[in-house]
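Quick note —
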Amino acid sequence: MALKIEVSLACREKSVGFAAPVMENPPDRKGRTFRRGSRRGPKPSVKQNEMNSKEILKLGLPKGSLQDAAIAKMAKAGFHVQVSSRSYVPYVDDEQLMIRLIRAQEISRYVEHGYLDCGLTGHDWIVENGSKVHEVGEFQFSKATSQPARWVLAVPENSPIKSPKDLQGKRIATEVVNITKRYLRQHGVKAEVEFSWGATEVKAHELVDAIVEITETGSSLRANNLRIVDTLLVSTPRLIANAASWKDPWKRQKIETLALLLRGALEAESKVGLKMNLQQKDLASLLKTLPALRNPTVSNLSLPGWVAVETIIDERVVRELIPQLKAAGAEGIIEYPLNKVVY
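Predicted structure written out below.
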């Protein structure tokens, strides 16, 4: 009798919709079970969430001969890059930037295909690769001087080759095969062009008839008893952007900001600031005598009748200008370097 009562009570509980017993470790939708009170998987940290939602600009810098110069210019622009000898992934003090060190010869291709949003590379490699990229700006600097680099046709001093026409049927070694072939077509010359893996100057005396090599001053060519016949291309570093990245509002603004600061840093390299004190009565004659101070900042000093004058001028004229300022009555003349000049 007792058994029947228990069964009927159980049936009644089921029929009136009593809740089923709660499982100690209920499974989730994927059938996984967790100890009650535990978190289901690791909870993303605040920093991780920020990284996932943060915009990142991928920038390529040239590895090799232009690396030190490029990093120095980035530092003057306000982006401090630290490079490890064992890594191609340098640190930069901007969480919105991701920098990769890549050979200048390859940067334009990676930018074109979208692996990089933007990059600093030579105009020569953009032309050599035929890369379709957006050119943001030209930034004239190099590993040794501020002069642009030149790809030149060079031959031994005693070579009979005097002009491009003399290359007919000859063999030329170079790293820029496409640029050289285009140059030959422009002159209606057929010659063999072979890729050079390095030490190109040495080949000109024994292995080939001529070379096309890059130079800034020509000193290396002269040291190897080579004579320049013609210039094929003049090249300077360019900041380039991927077409899709340039259309992205956030990335474009970031790239334009980078270009603005880099341009300001380069502009400041050839200029210095000058400060001085001067009697008010001498100001007009000083400005008339020295046109370099045409638009200075003039402010009154606490001493009546005296003003402070501040201006920015080309560094190359400072050594001539300071004695003239002193003779014109200026006192407390201070010359100081500049990090950026933005017009």
